[in-house]
Amino acid sequence: MPLDPAAALTARAHEVTARLAALDADLAVVRDARGPEQSDDEHDPEGATLADDLARLVGLRRAAASELAAVEAAQARLSTGTYGVCERCDGPIGAGRLAVRPAAVRCVACADLG
Ligand SMILES: [Zn+2]
After folding, report:
1. Which of 27, 41, 76, 105 would be a feasible disulfide site paired with 47, CB 3.0-4.6 Å?
2. In-domain check, residue 87
């Protein structure tokens, strides 16, 4: 299958947007379940579980939001002609890596540097 970064990024953006919406719905449910009284979590097994759920969902939502931002940044690079160029060494990122991670900003060698 030929690499079509625009299509890959659009698909990824749709997927992440859907994930964000699902997480927002889950968060609303958990927040409703917790209710306005949150003072007794320590002594309430149910409350502690909800707190764990909330923390987990907030973490997932943060990760999804940053992934969406990365995808949008990649779409911007696509329109300015710098897509697929490593931000660190200016070398090509590589079609294989972009196929797996269409929003990648570094080539494999530079990504390994952290
Ligand atoms: Zn590089």
Report:
1. 41
2. no
